[in-house]
Specification:
It is a single chain. This protein is an all-alpha fold and 211 residues long. It has eleven helices and no strands. It has a domain of 140 residues: Tetracycline Repressor, domain 2, CATH 1.10.357.10. The protein is globular, with a radius of gyration of 20 Å.
């Protein structure tokens, strides 16, 4: 039995509650941005009182950071590993499938980033410094590792190639409402998922100097 003052070990129930909080916070932050969401609202979404949220996350800022960490860490890890793995078209296709699979697991992350870009404030500065710039750097390193890229583009073009790939990847998720209304397709359907992957493979092949 723990002695006096000992900290109780997290339980499965604690982990489940934290996951529910993160899920609700991710959706709300994606809809209205960091400034537009209160801890009280997040608590209401998961049937908790505000104090219960603070048992898991000491502040709204720490909750927001946890949402970003959960959503963006996999992308950085995937791209960092890709810097030494893009040896040919098959490896690039596998990378794209991994990235799209991850986006399907956390589709609100694209909307959350888009929301903060529109707000263009202090939150975006922190988001860029901690997450977006490292992800860009990892993507740039992955591009630089492909000889065809260096042969097909001048140095000044490479940032636009990397940013273009970002929009190719994240665009269908960040602009899901536009896809529904203008194109008349459900962006998160299985058919669209496969169409997205097929498009990315063809687009990447061309961007990287393919025929």
């Amino acid at each position: 039995m723990p002695g006096p003052g000992a900290r109780a070990q997290p339980t499965d129930a604690d982990a489940s509650t934290a996951t529910r909080i993160l899920d609700a916070a991710e959706i709300l932050f994606a809809q209205r941005g960091f400034a537009g969401v209160s801890v009280r609202e997040i608590a209401g979404q998961v049937g908790l009182n505000q104090g219960s949220i603070y048992n898991h996350f000491p502040s709204k800022q720490s909750l927001y950071e946890a949402v970003l960490q959960r959503g963006l860490t996999p992308f950085r890890e995937i791209l960092e590993s890709a810097a030494t793995e893009l040896t040919g078209p098959d490896a690039r296709d596998a990378l794209l499938e991994r990235l799209v699979d991850q986006l399907w697991r956390t589709p609100n992350i694209a909307k959350l980033i888009q929301r903060e870009v529109l707000d263009d404030g202090e939150v975006l500065e922190r988001l860029s410094e901690q997450w977006l710039r490292p992800i860009y750097t990892a993507g740039r390193a992955a591009m630089d590792a492909v000889p065809q890229v260096r042969e097909s583009w001048v140095e000044r073009d490479i940032p636009f190639v990397v940013l273009g790939m970002y929009h190719f990847l994240f665009g269908p998720f960040g602009s899901a409402a536009l896809t529904r209304r203008v194109i008349g397709e459900e962006p998160l359907s299985e058919d669209m998922r496969q169409a997205h992957i097929d498009f990315l493979k063809r687009a990447t092949h061309r961007l990287m100097g393919g025929a």
